[in-house]
Write a structure and sequence with these properties.
Cathepsin B, Chain A, nine-stranded mixed beta sheet, 8 helices, 9 strands
Length: 335
C-alpha cells in the first residue's frame, strides 16, 4: 500500500511538471531542433523547477521572490559561460575619503532617460562587449541629453577577447558607433561602415570593496561591476532585493551595469541592468543587497569618464546643494 501511495505521489509530481513544461514552451515559444534536445531541455527544466521550489521552502524569509522564466531550460553554467572578464585595465584608482551623508538616499539613472533598453544575451556571446558599450552610450547621454544606442556588434567584432574592451574602444575604434550603422556582427572588424559618436578619455577602476566610493561615483555616471551569478535563486529571480550570503563565496563570472541604488524597508540595494532580457527579473533589471559585497559585486568596478567636458554638458542633480555651501562659493567668486 505504501508503495502504491509513493508511486501515485510521484506520478502526480511529474505529471504536474509535464503540464508546466508544456505551458513553459507555449509561454516562451520554445522550439527545439531534435527530440533528443527537447528531452534534455525538459530534464534541465524539471531540475531547475525542483531546485527553485526547494529554495522557496528553505528560505521563507527571503528578501526576493523566484519564479519560472524563459531561462528555466538552461543550466546556470551555460548562462555564465563564455564570459572572459578583462584583467589589468589601465586605470586610475580614485579611492579617497567619502562622506556618504552628503549623498542622496536614492539614485536611479533610468528616470533620467539615459539607459538603453535591456539587451537579450545570446548563449556564448561576450557580455563584456554589451556592458562596455552600455557604459559609453550612457556617459554620452548624460553629457549631451541624447540617448543613442551604441553598437554592441562593433565592439564584439573589433575588440574580441582577450582584448580589453575599454582600452580597445579608446585606441582602436576611437569610440562606439551607432547600432543603426553597425547592427549585426560581420565576423571581423570593419571600421569603414560607421562613424563613432561617443568615447571617453579616462578609465577609473576601483579595487578594495569600497561601496561608499561606488555610491559617490555613480552620482556622475553608471558603473561596470563584475559578480557571481550562480548563487541560489539568482537564475529564477523575479523581484525584490537579492541577498544570499553564499553568493559571495562563488566565482566571478559575469558583468552588469549598475544604474543606481536605493533603500527599501531599511535595506540598502544596488539597481543593476542585466543582459538576460526583459522576461527576467524586474523587466530585465535586478536589485541586490548593498554594503556587504553581495556576490562579490564590489571587487572589480569600472567607470568611464571625460575629463574635458564641453560647454554643452548637461548637469543631473540627485541632491540639492546646501545653501551654506552656495553662499561660501559665491563669496569666494566675488572676492
Amino acid at each position: 500500500m505504501r508503495f502504491l501511495v509513493f508511486f501515485l505521489l510521484l506520478g502526480t509530481v511529474f505529471g504536474g511538471l509535464s503540464f508546466e513544461w508544456d505551458k513553459f514552451k507555449r509561454d516562451y515559444n520554445k522550439q527545439y531542433k531534435t527530440i533528443a534536445e527537447e528531452n534534455q531541455r525538459k530534464q534541465i527544466f524539471i531540475e531547475n523547477v525542483n531546485r527553485m521550489r526547494a529554495f522557496q521552502q528553505n528560505h521563507p524569509d527571503a528578501t526576493f521572490t523566484v519564479g519560472i522564466n524563459h531561462l528555466m531550460d538552461r543550466r546556470i553554467e551555460e548562462l555564465a559561460s563564455g564570459t572572459k572578464l578583462p584583467r589589468g585595465i589601465r586605470s586610475i584608482s580614485r579611492e579617497k575619503s567619502i562622506n556618504v551623508k552628503d549623498l542622496p538616499e536614492t539614485v536611479d539613472w533610468r528616470v533620467k532617460g539615459v539607459i538603453s533598453p535591456v539587451f537579450t544575451d545570446k548563449i556564448g556571446l561576450d557580455v563584456t562587449a554589451v556592458v562596455s558599450t552600455e557604459l559609453v552610450e550612457t556617459l554620452y547621454a548624460i553629457e549631451t541629453g541624447k540617448l543613442i544606442k551604441g553598437s554592441i556588434s562593433q565592439i564584439f567584432d573589433c575588440c574580441p577577447q582577450p582584448t580589453d574592451a575599454f582600452d580597445c574602444i579608446q585606441k582602436n575604434t576611437n569610440g562606439i558607433c551607432p547600432d543603426s550603422d553597425y547592427p549585426a556582427s560581420l565576423g571581423s572588424c570593419n571600421l569603414t561602415i560607421c562613424k563613432p559618436f561617443a568615447t571617453f578619455d579616462k578609465i577609473n577602476r576601483l579595487e578594495g570593496k569600497n561601496e561608499d566610493i561606488m555610491k559617490a561615483w555613480i552620482q556622475e555616471s553608471t558603473l561596470w561591476a563584475e559578480l557571481n551569478v550562480v548563487g541560489e535563486g539568482f537564475q529564477e529571480y523575479t523581484t525584490g532585493i537579492y541577498d544570499v550570503p553564499s553568493c559571495t563565496e562563488g566565482p566571478i563570472d559575469y558583468v552588469v551595469q549598475i544604474v543606481g541604488y536605493g533603500v527599501e524597508a531599511n535595506k540598502p540595494y544596488w539597481i543593476c541592468k542585466h543582459s538576460w532580457g526583459k522576461n527576467w527579473g524586474e523587466n530585465g533589471f535586478f536589485r541586490i543587497a548593498r554594503g556587504k559585497n553581495m556576490c562579490r559585486i564590489a571587487e572589480n568596478v569600472v567607470q568611464v569618464a571625460n575629463t574635458k567636458k564641453s560647454d554643452g554638458v548637461r548637469q543631473y542633480n540627485f541632491i540639492s546643494i546646501p545653501i551654506v555651501l552656495i553662499v561660501a562659493l559665491v563669496s569666494r567668486l566675488i572676492n
